[in-house]
């Protein structure tokens, strides 16, 4: 309590000052990043566990800032959300991902899906569903080849309004995945109300498969829960063959992770577009 009273008058220490400046600096450069064409999408394959074939890709943003160099999305997405810049950045991501995937379909056939991360700030926009439908219309991509990845943070926002937007998009054939599942605030009753098609089990469960006894039963339980609800279950962050073997045995539908590939730029996608088994 003594410490508390004292701390109240400390407005900032040096490290806070530095962190604040860094945020301001990132935000400032984020504002010009779009016009300077500093964003790029990388693509990470998802593999169907039973068949061994690639079923789709997740689009992941990369920012090569002329001033700051490469900045991880883990450092700038939150800042982009707080400053609302994510609305513009996210729209670009959606349009670019649909466009690139349509180009792939035209060349090699339409067997791949594209998954796009969507911030809750984007979903709260009045024109969110229009932007999604327009991205499909402009690119010519089929709606059932687009999957939107949302996180459990939507439970803290205008849940009803977001659910009705997602229901509308689902009725148009677009798929919805619940990302990072198991780490946030989902309760089972909320889960039932969400019009999702896919559960993405968080990487932390996969990481601990080898050394935490309860992780194996967590993973089995999540797979069963998903399947009982009629959902597809995807494991993210799969890095080794023992994790793959366990997930296959547990009946998980798809995997994504460094075991198959790191995310790659469009220029390096070609080898992944061949219809070959990946393990
Ligand atoms: P996420 O959606 O959970 O994406 C998975 C992250 O795990 C990616 O990090 C990916 O590169 C990384 N990853 C994939 N497989 C493995 C693996 O086997 N091992 C390890 N250690 N990591 C793996 P990344 O690309 O740095 O993205 C971080 C987060 O930033 C994403 O987490 C997502 O929340 C956010 N993000 C990325 N792109 C976008 C975007 O376009 N829009 C929005 N709103 N968020 C994005
Ligand atoms: Ca994701
Ligand atoms: Ca994820
Ligand atoms: Ca994650």
Automatic annotation (TrEMBL):
Return the protein name: EAL domain-containing protein
Provide the species name: Paenibacillus monticola
Domain (EAL): residue spans on this chain: 23-277
Q: Which residues of the full protein are shown?
A: 762 to 1040 of 1042
């Amino acid at each position: 309590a003594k410490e508390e009273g004292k701390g109240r008058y400390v407005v900032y220490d040096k490290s806070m000052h530095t962190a604040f400046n860094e945020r301001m600096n990132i935000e400032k450069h984020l504002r010009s990043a779009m016009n300077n064409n500093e964003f790029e999408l990388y693509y990470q394959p998802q593999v169907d566990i039973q068949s061994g074939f690639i079923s789709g890709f997740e689009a992941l943003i990369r920012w090569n800032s002329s001033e700051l160099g490469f900045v991880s999305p883990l450092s700038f997405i939150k800042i982009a959300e707080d400053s609302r810049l994510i609305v513009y950045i996210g729209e670009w991501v959606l349009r670019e991902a649909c466009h690139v995937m349509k180009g792939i379909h035209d060349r090699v056939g339409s067997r791949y899906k594209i998954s796009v991360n969507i911030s809750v700030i984007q979903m709260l926009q009045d024109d969110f569903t229009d932007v999604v439908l327009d991205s499909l219309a402009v690119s010519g991509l089929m709606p059932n080849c687009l999957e939107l990845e949302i996180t459990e943070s939507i439970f803290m926002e205008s849940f009803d309004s977001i659910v009705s937007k997602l229901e509308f998009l689902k009725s148009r054939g677009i798929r919805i995945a619940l990302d990072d599942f198991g780490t946030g605030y989902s309760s089972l009753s909320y889960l039932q109300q969400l019009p999702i098609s896919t559960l993405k089990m968080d990487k932390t469960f996969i990481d601990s498969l080898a050394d935490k006894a309860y992780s194996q039963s967590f993973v089995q339980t999540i797979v069963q829960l998903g399947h009982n609800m009629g959902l597809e279950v995807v494991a993210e962050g799969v890095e080794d063959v023992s994790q793959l073997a366990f997930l296959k045995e547990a009946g998980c539908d798809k995997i994504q992770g460094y075991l198959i590939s790191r995310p790659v730029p469009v220029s390096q996608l070609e080898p992944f577009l061949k219809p070959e088994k990946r393990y």
